[in-house]
Amino acid sequence: MPEMDGLALTQSIRQFDEASNHFTYVILLTAKEGGDALLYAFEQGVDDFLNKSLMNEQLLPRLWAAERTSSMYNRLLRDNQSLIEANGKLKKMSSLDPLTGLGNRAQAVRRLGDTIKHCASRGGACCYLLITLTNLDALRKQHNASVISQLIVATSRRLRQLVRPLDEVARVAPHQIAVITHQPDIEYCNAQSYRRIHDSINLKAYKTTGGYISIKTTLNIVASDSELSLPTAETLMQLADSRVRIALETGLITCDHWQPT
Questions:
Q1: What residue ranges do the domains of the chain occupy?
Q2: 3-state class (DSSP) for residue 254
Q3: Per-residue pLDDT tens over the stretch 134-179
């Protein structure tokens, strides 16, 4: 063939297959003899090897076998791609944290966005509380995974009992739980209003199979009201994330009222 031989063509076919999620069965027809030539051909991606002297007797049966193999392989590739796409859709649609049964971060973004829209149309303030379990990494070194899971579940249950029925509680990260709430006025979104939540989680130990264990947390509050141009859900969440270090260093509850600037 001009410009390339059969092995160079095979490499081009393999590159095309990789890009298109396809399988092409390649039979090399050659006059070369010897094990070295056969080994080299297979290393270059050839699937079958046929000497030209045997072509009249063996080519047609080899083509039938190639058709069966390539059909089965391409069907498997299509099925696998369908599974990947279905799994991706399920992940996008999933709104629950598998450990606690609370909403996950995606659910928190949706619910916070809905609360912001509610403020824009009905008034009031949107309040986002971010609770970080600051000693969780240290506890992981002392206790097994089962005990840590019990702690996280117990914390989420206690938090669920401390907030109002319509408030959204979501596990937004492995070590963080958030509360999304609507208040009639932004003045209610302050440290004093939510100190009891912070203290209830911190001061009372949790019973686990590893004994009674205490959780240490920080609390960051961010809020916005309809009197200002309202932020996006991600903007409020990022603001809360940026304040975690300050709460950790000072031991204080931080509270920020979002400003457009």
A1: 6-93, 105-257
A2: strand
A3: 999 999 999 999 999 999 999 999 999 999 999 999 999 999 999 9
